[in-house]
Amino acid sequence: MNRQITLASRPIGYPKESDFRLVETPIPTPETGQVQLKTLYLSVDPYMRGRINAAKSYAATVEIGEVMIGGVIAQVIESKHSDFQVGDIVNAHIGWQEYGVSNGDGLRKMDAAIAPISTGAGILGMPGLTAYFGLLEVGKLQDGETVFVSGAAGAVGSVVGQIAKIKGCRVVGTAGTDEKIAYIVDELGFDAAFNYKNVTDYQAKLEGLFPDGIDVYFDNVGGRITDGVFPNLRVKGRAVICGQISQYNLEKPEMGPRFLWNMITKRARIEGFLVSDFAGQHAEALVQMAEWVRQGKLKYRETIAEGGIEKAPAAFISMLKGGNIGKQLVKIADIAELR
Ligand code: NAP
Ligand code: FER
User: Most exposed among 32, 47, 219, 229, judged by the fewest C-beta atoms under 10 Å?
Assistant: First the structure.
């Protein structure tokens, strides 16, 4: 049988495990032009929180009773598709289930010789690409600038800071535990970092850390941390709005200060983006990212929940509450020797 996680109810505030249900269905079999996939790792990501709300935003909402959407790293276990062989490892979008079929659309082959296959959902996948395009294309980062990144120890933020260091920038990050702060400074090479849970006046804290102001702010979290940034932007500064995770589980919208005056005096730019806006350039960016990983210029960590598909809801909730360092994954199965 195939085991799947479906949406049982729409969460109010933080999701609960009871908002999800484990169901068993027959393993789907491939037709001509399709492959059969076995999930090895499942990715749990912040964007999924928005996809289980009733209101559709940039993408379709998951209906009650439907399998949770999401990316996986999977192995081809049967192929009726000329581009894929049994044994191939692919990044696929079959959602939270142990087996699925695909007609090949959106499948990306992984090369285990380059890096462990789990990185295809992290540093060499969607989150890494988000960091790359957000910082370099949207943020138009220039060598030697000053960068502040929120959510700095997560899948996206940890890569943002390291790319900024590769570009010779001064980088400060913020994250929610002292262990994460030590990790990004001591292992990833951030110039400075602070635990946002120990600070109340973010504007003053950032004034101290950036006496000459911030050129690029990479925002993963929004809320009060972000409010503290705008008065500290430099002339021609850029605020790249990648995520607003501090707002995703609120039951009531949070009101903030009116900061737009700063955008006038700093002649600054705020721009949001989706990683998919750059889909046509993902392949070439991954070549560069893989090279940086190979050279040791990009380091990464993964937080991997063990125990199979039934652990996916708990891993998702844990990630939303800060339980992860680097990319949060769920281990589903081992690679098999199939050829
Ligand atoms: P992640 O950072 O690996 O994990 C989420 C982290 O958010 C948690 O570990 C937690 O770390 C932090 N967090 C949770 N609640 C918070 C709060 N109230 N205030 C501050 N931080 C909080 O996740 P990710 O996959 O790298 O995604 C990071 C952000 O990028 C998310 O906002 C996501 O929506 C966004 N994103 C956007 C795109 C795009 O195309 N625009 C693509 C991918 C991701 P702490 O311990 O530090 O609190
Ligand atoms: C995508 C566009 C955006 C995508 C993920 C995101 C999985 C994430 C957005 C967010 O976290 O806010 O195509 O693919």
Answer: 32
The domain that contains 187 carries what CATH number?
3.40.50.720
Is the model's pTM score more than 0.90? yes
| Cβ(203) – ligand 1 distance below 6 Å | no
Cβ 242 vs Cβ 128: under 8 Å:
no
The reply to whether 132 and 237 lie within a common domain is yes
Let me know if residue 64 belongs to a domain: yes
Q: Ligand 1 atom closest to Cα of 272? A: 41
* Dist. CA 22 → ligand 1 center (Å): 26
* 138/257 same-domain check: yes
Residue 19 is given by DSSP the state G
Per this entry, what is the length of the chain? 339
Number of continuous H segments (helices) and E segments (strands) in the chain: 10, 15
Whether 154 is in a domain gets the answer: yes
Backbone angles phi, psi at 311, to 5 degrees: -90, 0
CA nearest neighbour of 212 among 131, 266, 134, 258: 266
Residue 88 pLDDT level (bands cut at 50, 70, 90): very high
Helix locations, the chain, DSSP H:
47-51, 126-133, 157-166, 178-182, 202-209, 223-227, 245-248, 260-265, 282-294, 312-320
What does the pLDDT look like over 148-177, one tens digit per residue? 999 999 999 999 999 999 999 999 999 999
Residues 64 and 146 in one domain: no
Q: Which residues contact 322 (CB under 8 A, 6 or more apart)?
A: 176, 177
Residues near ligand 2 (Cβ within 6 A)? 46-47, 126, 243, 274-276
324 lines ligand 1 (CB under 6 A): yes
The tally of domains found in the chain comes to: 2
Q: Which two tokens stand for residue 33?
A: 């032009």
